[in-house]
Fold:
Amino acid sequence: MPRQARLDAPGVFQHVIARGIEKTRIFRDEVDYRFFINRLGELVEENHFDCFAWVLLPNHFHLLLRTGPIPLATFMRRLMTSYATYYNRRHKRSGHLFQNRYKSFVCEEDPYFLELVRYIHLNPLRSGLVKDLEELKRYPWCGFRVLMGIYKNSWQEVDEVLKYFGNQVGEARAAYRKFMEDGIKQGRRPDLSGGRLTHHSKDNKNLPKVKERDSEDPYDPRILGGAHFRKKIFARIQQFEKKNALRMTLKDLTEKVAKCCNLSTSDITSGSKCAQIAKARAVLSYLAIRLKRMKAIELADFLNVSPSAISKCVLRGEKVVKEYPGIIDQKMK
Structure:
C-alpha cells in the first residue's frame, strides 16, 4: 500500500522523529552532536521555523517545530542530508544513515503542545541516559536545560513555552519542572509518537478531554488532535496547496527532467524500458506525485504506462532523489 503523503502547511505544529538505519548510532561523540545542533539552529533561523522542544539520543532524535514558509520536507531534507554527508565523510562510511523516511505528526496545540514538550524532553531519562531531572539539566543534547535557564541558544523558543506556567520567569520554571516531574510516572507515551489514541486507551487519561470524533471523521495517524482540529487542518492544507502548489505545469516539469537527463520529452513519455529513460521517468513520477499531488491515473496516461507502474516509479524515483539530494532544487529552478 502506498504511503500517505505528509501533511504540511505554514504555521502548524509538527512532532518529527528520525532514527538511524537498523537502529544504529547516528551520533558517536560530542563533535557529531554539536555539528547536528549547529546545523539545526542555522536552518531554524534561516527558514523562519520555531523550535519548542528537541532531543538528540544516540540512535534517533525528536523535534517539535512550528513550520515556516518552506515545506517541512525541504527543511528536513536539508538537515538530514547535510548531517549524513558530514557523518559519512568524518567516519569514513557510505550508504544511508537514517532509517526510511522521518516520521512527522501535525499536532493540535491544546492539549498536545505541552504534552509533547514534556515527552520529548524526558526521553533521555526514559532511555536511561540520565537518572533524574538534575542530571537531565546537565544533559547537553536536549532543550530541557535551555528552558531551565542553564544554557542559552538563539533558536529555541523559550518564552512561548514558559508563558503557560507563569508570568514571572522563576515562577514559570519552577512550575515547568513540577510538570516534568509529574510526567515521569506516566512512562512511555506511544500516543505521542504515532500510536493511536482511542477512547479506551490507557494513555487517554494523561490528556485533557478532547471532543470525541464522529463516525464520519476517520482517524488519521498523521494528526494528533480532535475531530474539529482534523477538519480544520485538512481545510487549511487544501487551501495552502491550491494557493502555493507547484506552479510548474507537468509539461514544464517533464522538459526540465528531460534536459537534466539529456533526453527529449518524447523519450520520457514513450513508455520505453530503456534504463536511462526509466530512471528519468521515475524521477518525474516522484516529483509529480509527491510535490504536485497528481493522481497516478492521470500521470500514467501522460507517460503511457499502466497506473500500477506509477507506484513502482515513485518508489524508484524517491531512491534516486535520496542518492542525489540536490536534484529537486535543480529541477525546480
In short: DSSP finds 15 helices and five strands in the chain. Confidence is low (pLDDT under 50) at residues 195-205, 207-215. The longest strand covers residues 50-57. The beta strands are 13-19, 50-57, 60-66, 103-107, 223-224.
